[in-house]
Design a protein that fits this description.
Keywords: Amino-acid biosynthesis, Cytoplasm, Histidine biosynthesis, Isomerase. The chain is α/β, with parallel strands linked by helices and about 260 residues long. About 35% of the residues lie in helices and about 30% in strands. It has 11 helices and 12 strands.
């Protein structure tokens, strides 16, 4: 895909507080490493309600057990979070059309599809035709190799798929994908700041996609910077749960930009 010399500025920038669940508890992983886990006291539903009180409209929910082993299991939690007043974007271990349908039936607004879309990209068009592009978010979680190429690990970031980011962008764009979540794995859980160059590249390569920045966001300035390089939203993980900033302040700042 040929890069455009300019990028679009995202309209209606959206914030997605993130809750990662493992063994029923709220956790964060460092760079996707299951051996480097931090646990947090609030239950998933209590944390979701906290975000509602701070003005959240969306929640990004991840089933970490299923991301590695398959078998999405948070249907009841999705229903509870939706009942609390949040639009839920969720994934982890989605393996089939039936998995997508069951998660949507549980009350999710969007299903996040990662490893399966990378391994079987020809199926993407069929999912869009059946469920609609806006009911799906495709996740390209990327790790830069020694040659500077962006690789796409799968199975909870534990195995290399052999696919490359730019090739998958072409496939997704041709299939009619609308929502793209991209995580720089090296930044995830580090509070090292988002990879703005990566998101600037994505916005120029695929200007028709609504790109969600994920990984490394540490403060409100990082959120605003992600918006400025062309992202349509940002997933807020460790910094938010550890109270580095207040969600309501971030919402106000984004609206003012």
């Amino acid at each position: 895909m040929n890069a455009s010399p300019s990028f679009r500025r995202a309209a209606g920038f959206q914030l997605y507080p993130a809750i990662d669940v493992r063994d029923g508890r709220v956790v964060r992983l460092h760079q996707g490493d299951y051996e480097r886990e931090t646990r947090y006291e609030p239950t998933p539903i209590d944390l979701a309600r906290r975000y509602v009180a701070q003005g959240a409209q969306w929640l990004h929910l991840v089933d970490l057990d299923a991301a590695r082993l398959g078998g999405y299991s948070l249907h009841t939690l999705v229903c509870e979070i939706a009942d609390a007043g949040l639009r839920v974007q969720t994934g982890g271990g989605v393996r089939s059309d039936d998995d997508i349908a069951r998660i949507l039936d549980a009350g999710a607004e969007r299903v996040v599809i990662g490893s399966l879309a990378v391994r079987e990209p020809v199926r993407v068009g069929g999912w869009i035709e059946r469920f609609g592009a806006d009911r799906l978010t495709f996740a390209l979680d990327a790790r830069q190799d020694a040659r500077g190429e962006w690789c796409l690990p799968v199975a909870g970031w534990t195995r290399d798929s052999g696919a490359r980011l730019d090739d998958m962008l072409d496939t997704f764009a041709e299939a009619g994908v609308t929502n793209l979540l991209c995580t720089d794995i090296a930044r995830d859980g580090t509070l090292g700041g988002p990879n703005l160059e990566l998101y600037r590249l994505l916005a120029s390569l695929a200007p028709g996609l609504e790109i969600q920045a994920s990984g490394g966001i540490r403060d409100i300035d990082d959120i605003v910077a992600s918006q400025a390089v062309g992202c349509a939203g940002a997933v807020l993980g460790k910094a938010l749960i550890e109270n580095a900033f207040d969600l309501s302040d971030a919402i106000d700042r984004v609206r003012a930009c």
